[in-house]
Amino acid sequence: MNVALAKTTTGATLDGTFAAARGRLPGTGPVVETRQRAFDQFAVTGLPTRRVEEWKYTDLRRLLGDVAPLAGAPDQAALAEARKAVAALKDGDTQKLVLVDGVFAADLSSFSAGNGVTVHALSAVLADDTSAVRADLLLSTVNDPMLALNAAFATDGVIISVADGIDCATPLQIVHVTTKPNTAAFTRSLIRIGSKAKVTLVETFVATEAAKAYQVHDTTVMWVGDDADLQHVRVMEDAHDAASIASAIVTVGARAKFNTFSLTTGGGVSRYQSFITLAGENSELSTNSVHLLRGQQHGDCTFVIDHAKPGCLSRETFRAVLDDRAHSVFQGKISVHQIAQQTDGKMMSRALLLSDDAEIDNKPELEIFADDVQCGHGATVGALDDSLLFYLRARGLPEKEAESLLIQAFVGEALESIVNDDLRDVAIGAAERWLGTRV
Amino acid sequence: MPALLEVKNLQVRVEEREILHGLTLTVNAGEVHAIMGPNGSGKSTLSHVIAGKPGYEVTGGEILFKGEDLLEMEADERAAKGVFLAFQYPVEIPGVATMTFLRTALNAQRKARGESEFSTPDFLKKVREVAASLNIPQDMLRRGVNVGFSGGEKKRNEVLQMALFQPSLCILDEMDSGLDIDALRIASEGVNALRSSERAMVVITHYQRLLNYIVPDHVHVMSKGRVVKTGGKELALELEASGYAQYEDVAA
Amino acid sequence: MAAVQETIDQVRLIDVDQYRYGFETLIESELAPKGLSEDIVRYISAKKNEPEWMLEWRLEAYRRWLTMEEPTWARVDYPKIDFQDLHYYSAPKKKSIASLDEIDPEILKTYEKLGIPLREVAMLEGVEPQPGDVDPNRRKIAVDAVFDSVSVATTFQAELKKAGVIFMPISEAIREHPELVKQYLGTVVPTSDNFYATLNSAVFSDGSFVYIPPGVKCPMELSTYFRINERNTGQFERTLIIADKGAYVSYLEGCTAPQRDENQLHAAVVELVTLDDAEIKYSTVQNWYPGNSEGKGGIYNFVTKRGDCRGNNSKISWTQVETGSAITWKYPSCILRGDNSRGEFYSIAISNGYQQVDSGTKMIHLGNNTTSRIISKGIAAGKSQNTYRGLVTAHRKAKNARNFTACDSLLIGDQCGAHTVPYIEAKNSSALFEHEATTSKISEDVLFYCVQRGLSQEEAVGLVVNGFVKDVLQQLPMEFAVEAQKLISISLEGSVG
Description:
The structure holds three protein chains of three kinds. Chain A has helices at residues 14-22, 30-45, 60-63, 76-87, 122-126, 145-153, 386-394, 399-416, 421-436, and strands spanning 95-100, 103-104, 117-121, 158-162, 172-178, 184-193, 198-207, 215-224, 229-236, 243-252, 257-264, 269-278, 284-293, 298-307, 313-322, 327-336, 344-353, 359-368, 374-382. By secondary structure, chain A is α/β, with parallel strands linked by helices. Chain A has two domains: 71-385, no CATH class; 386-439, no CATH class. In chain A, helix 1 (14-22) runs antiparallel to helix 2, helix 2 runs antiparallel to helix 6 (145-153) and helix 8 packs antiparallel against helix 9. Chain A is globular, with a radius of gyration of 21 Å. Chain B is an alpha/beta fold. Chain B has ten helices and twelve strands. Chain B has helices spanning 43-51, 75-81, 98-112, 120-133, 138-142, 151-165, 181-193, 209-213, 234-242, 245-251, and strands spanning 5-14, 17-27, 32-36, 57-65, 68-69, 83-86, 93-97, 144-145, 169-173, 200-205, 218-223, 226-231. Chain B is globular, with a radius of gyration of 18 Å. Chain C contains twelve helices and 23 strands. Classes of the chains: A alpha/beta, B alpha/beta, C alpha/beta. The interface between A and C is medium-sized, with 35 and 34 residues.
């Protein structure tokens, strides 16, 4: 399955490669057809350029150039390296599901079945000819070229199902480990949270030392049942020469709670795009995203919140701290359907530019078809406040320490949104690592 | 033994405009000096330059603190040496809890002086004591620095820091602005409790009112960037009666 | 809820059928044949007695236009325009007039019906100087009236001339001041700028030209009234205003059209240039025919307006009250090129019936210490769609750029949409941008409070809407503010009374 994907400009040249790989990707019959349709959909635009409005500020054709060859299944040596990387994680007590180079590694996972939680490998289900719905696992409700590419090439992932009413005390964690340089992994995971269930889900992205210039293409599809509660934490500390293109498609039921946090300090080019539909009445959504970027890093955080039912509340917070020549993008869209009366949607984006060469592009968008709503967004851009800095220095804090304190305060609100103490500490730890390496 | 603070013939510019035209002032340990003057006379500029605020260009003269050249030091180094400026308008710092701020600042100063850092229990105990004496409730300490504080609360927070850091020179910049009588009394009592033979205070004010509470040893009148008259505490009363107009000519 | 529902029903019933400027003037017109070709461009140029360079400029734009495609990014939806099914030139037959008396009385009547005084005397008689108003001249407004494709009258020419101000139809300026026109035309909105601006460059027929010499504060408000009368006619006016060093001018623009079942195209270009220390204040009240209650007819308003703060310390301020047109596609923008320059955009956009508005601004910070301010108020009622689209950008070398943006939307009824699409780009750390946007409906509590205090439901809504748009209305010159306020009432009739 180690297929070299040719350099592509429009996707047309990827065509032959896909045709060659198609037969070896997991799944037959309807799965193959679905993959082909997804690929055709991708090929319409190819890697998106700035001319594709949704990708205006993240021109993948320029930033990524091409899609790297598929990583292929890890060998024993790679698994051994990956095991070390997983062991080094300090994420407290979690049930780990490990994907190495895009393939589920049961041996590295620490998941105990039972208690209302089931886990399957996506590859196994796709290959199961008796499953009537297997091809549907690759479908998505969102039309996006990179989501389509992911569906076409997805090699593996995990399918997690939490039964109704289960309170999952130990967080579930999906760990992505990359071991091979100059390769791409395409993963796709699906998580169903039953009604009244309570779950904390962590997504972690790491690489072994050998992995350089790799690409992570990930999709997570989540359903949060009625009255359920999903706490989601995502920390991305991939290598600075790596690319990470990840999507989340979330459907939230009635009276449910979905609280998602994402921290990006890694990746040379990264985009985390989240499409969240509030599909039941009176649900609560909170999204908190932090970019801590430096060097030449390009980070894109895109959130599309769809208020499809009345009485839901959404709060979006975005904070970017940018040093050197880093470039951050925040696109937030709140869309309110005609029937979604009594919607309360707010979004706030704030960027702190530490360097004259840093850049932030904000596109906070409102699309409103109902009249009884309270919606708003705010955006600010600026440098560290000189009067605050002087106050701190007049109280004895050296320059860097004063700056650090203000930066911590700046991102603090978003970090505080993480409910689980251990996971909050993980995120704070990652933020402190970033601050600690500021020169 | 050198004077605690010696300002000699200080000339300061802001964006090409000279604000201080050769100001001289000597403050010894144990003394309380009041600097009075009309708006725009350069009082606040003097306090900012002593504390090391960026944006001022010193074009002449010097400032010695315990015999050392203050102008060579960064603002945080001056703080560690014992220079404390109580701001006229203390800033709000959302997201930084007052308690965190106090501990970070105190330990940074101690570290700079080569002293050991305070242990957390000792620190908490000390803060609670001082806060209680200044009528500062505990929940104020948990909130962001000055965030949502009233004018009086902000000034009390400044005095709290003064008491905690134990600086040898306290500059109080218009401490009375925006305070009602009760708030002024509480803040002044806090300041008076800190008067000692090792510590000097420079009280900058427009009005004599504050000096009823913090009684100075020396009073200086500033006008147009210079000290134009120096006297005892009776000079403040004199000013209250006759106003600043008589000194405008002296400076010109 | 019942009370609000009632209001909404009233808005639905009445809305745009109330257009008060929908009459037609029956005069003989000279029409170019339908369609667009190089020959038509030559025809227009010849009709205007233009010099060769102007014809070349137009032809170049026309050839460019042939290679371009209509933009599709705006949130507006309309059937494809057949650009060959339009007349690109229409002029009242009586031509070359020496005084107002020679204007076709029908046209004069038209402008009287519109409430636009073309007779200078009448103008002065109509406005009583206020007590304490030391200079009654201050209230004079010089008017350039554009009827279909030609300017029919420009008033107060002599008095303006005394001040050194040039205010004339652009067709005349091309002949009389070719050096000024050549120097500035197309330098703010290049001929290749966008589909509609390029089309305009090829076929524009008339518009106003203003030049304020150095140090001159224009002695009166300047004003242009645009009127589309002829059927199946596109109106492509072109306005160019230059404020030389230290000059100041306040310019007002108003627009109306007869009520017709077909859609009519209006694609104007407005270019403003301010040199060092100059200021231009540009105000628009746009109430082109919006179509009827079924969404039939109405003007397609595709307009490119842009100002260039070319000099240091210069300022351009756009104020617009947009109540008309079936489709509005309009982004009056400022290029803040000079150091310390300032751009402002104040907008009220009201949509009702089936109107579609996609409007906003671009503030492009290039110089140092530039500031901009955007206040946008969108009100959507009926089955309309109302979008604010804006860009604020600070370039890498633009030190200390400052922007404040507030865009608020108000929805009346649940059949309409209000949308906000801002782009905020900071390319260096000295930029300080603040942006806030809200969408809400008229609070039941506020309505109840007003009604309890004795206001009718309609008065209460009117009160709230007026409060909502007050910040922007205040930016208009007084004469215009009164007109605008009336217009807002008419546009939302049923809810405002």
